[in-house]
């Protein structure tokens, strides 16, 4: 199977994860609404936007040089744009969880999930800025770009990996928080969602690693 | 900084994670003993051996082609041996958690942590077998090896990534299980352990990604 074939698998796992997340949040949980008086509906914005932004769009952005037809400049623009959209969705998703904590009087930033998440968000922003300054602005010269490219790629792969760790720990935290019991339907749904997210991350990693 | 410099950081984060894990399991928790009548002492074998095997030794094995002086054959032997030791430690570590579940009448394999862990363990074994047959046995020819190498590398990176996800979700599960409270010393210790494990995984990934 080629890198292009694996990118097909990546799309599949990504879309599967979105569907499973929506079934979970809309059917099993309270629904998704940023401006609700019900704290859990506000909270549910968080997992959806963090996955859509930091994992799905960022992953698709990483594969854009392979999967988008057209000139290199077009692919690069799509790559950069998907990542800035990821950051915007991430800001809204993070705002939602702090808003929920405020509504429900829950402490902020004490769990491993929150630590991994906040470190990943910060480094992701730096990686985007670094990439924009080096590869989009006309300032950096060819040799500088050539030196920086492997670091940009390795950093991007590491960040996707950290974002997936944040998602998996987040799903664990929520499963425990709502007291899911062994083998019940909802915990299996959450676990399959986690596996789909993991396999999306793994597939994207293999696609960009093989190039 | 060179790939070799980053490998220094990787050793540092790896050793830091071992120290933090030992402080946690020996000082804050019940200690580590495979043949104990106290279930928690049996359980504590699990996090130690899974990290030592599947993450630390596997990660050191992945970097062996860069960090071990000597001929290519020596490096390759170290690479292969560290991975088989990882598998043996992994088997003992998995046995410990099933033994603990049996002693404490806890259900097996229902959490996202256990699902990620068991999938990773199975694929790790397959990757080792695949590597041994292709690269150690004299059967496979040069062109086959050259075709398989990028897949072996990409698969190995993906597996380290999955193993780190398993570790992080495991730390979350245990933190919740023992009811750690926000901002207390022990939860911060667990979180720093999780960050050290994550940074070890990230550094190894960058080292092998840059080569």
Summed up, what is this model?
The structure is a homodimer of 211-residue chains. By secondary structure, the first copy, chain A, is mostly helical.
What does this molecule look like?
- The structure is a homodimer of 211-residue chains.
- Chain A is globular, with a radius of gyration of 18 Å.
- The model of chain A has no long low-confidence stretch (mean pLDDT 95).
- Chain A has a single domain, classed as Four Helix Bundle (Hemerythrin (Met), subunit A), CATH 1.20.120.1770.
- The first copy, chain A, is mainly alpha-helical and 211 residues long.
- Helix content of chain A is 82%, strand content 0%.
- In chain A, helix 1 runs antiparallel to helix 3 (45-67).
- The first copy, chain A, is built from seven helices and no strands.
- The longest helix of chain A is centred in the last third of the chain and has 36 residues, at 142-177.
- At the A-B interface, helix 5, helix 6 and helix 7 of A face helix 5, helix 6 and helix 7 of B.
| Category from helices, strands and their pairing of chain A | mainly alpha
Number of strands of chain A: 0
The most extensive interface between chains reads: A-B, 40 and 40 residues
Q: Give the topology string of chain A: H per helix, E per strand.
A: HHHHHHH
The number of helices of chain A is 7
Provide the helix percentage of chain A: over 70%
- Which blocks of ≥5 consecutive residues of chain A have pLDDT under 50? none
* Rg of chain A: 18 Å
**What is the average per-residue confidence, as pLDDT of chain A, rounded to a whole number?**
95
Regarding quaternary structure, how should these chains be classified?
Answer: homodimer
CATH topology of chain A: Four Helix Bundle (Hemerythrin (Met), subunit A)
Alpha carbon gap, first and last residue of chain A: 13 Å
């Amino acid at each position: 199977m080629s890198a292009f074939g694996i990118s097909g698998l990546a799309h599949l796992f990504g879309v599967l994860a979105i569907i499973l997340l929506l079934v979970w949040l809309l059917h099993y949980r309270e629904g998704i609404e940023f401006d609700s008086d019900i704290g859990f509906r506000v909270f549910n914005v968080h997992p959806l936007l963090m996955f859509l932004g930091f994992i799905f769009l960022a992953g698709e952005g990483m594969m854009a040089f392979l999967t988008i037809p057209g000139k290199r400049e077009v692919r690069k623009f799509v790559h950069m744009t998907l990542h800035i959209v990821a950051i915007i969705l991430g800001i809204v998703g993070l705002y939602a969880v702090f808003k929920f904590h405020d509504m429900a009087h829950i402490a902020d930033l004490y769990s491993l999930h929150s630590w991994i998440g906040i470190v990943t968000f910060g480094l992701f922003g730096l990686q985007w800025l670094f990439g924009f300054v080096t590869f989009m602005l006309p300032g950096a010269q060819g040799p500088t770009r050539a030196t920086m490219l492997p670091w940009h790629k390795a950093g991007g792969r590491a960040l996707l990996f950290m974002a997936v760790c944040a998602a998996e720990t987040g799903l664990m935290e929520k499963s425990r928080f709502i007291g899911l019991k062994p083998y019940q339907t909802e915990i299996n749904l959450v676990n399959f969602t986690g596996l789909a997210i993991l396999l999306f991350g793994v597939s994207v990693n293999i696609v960009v690693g093989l190039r």
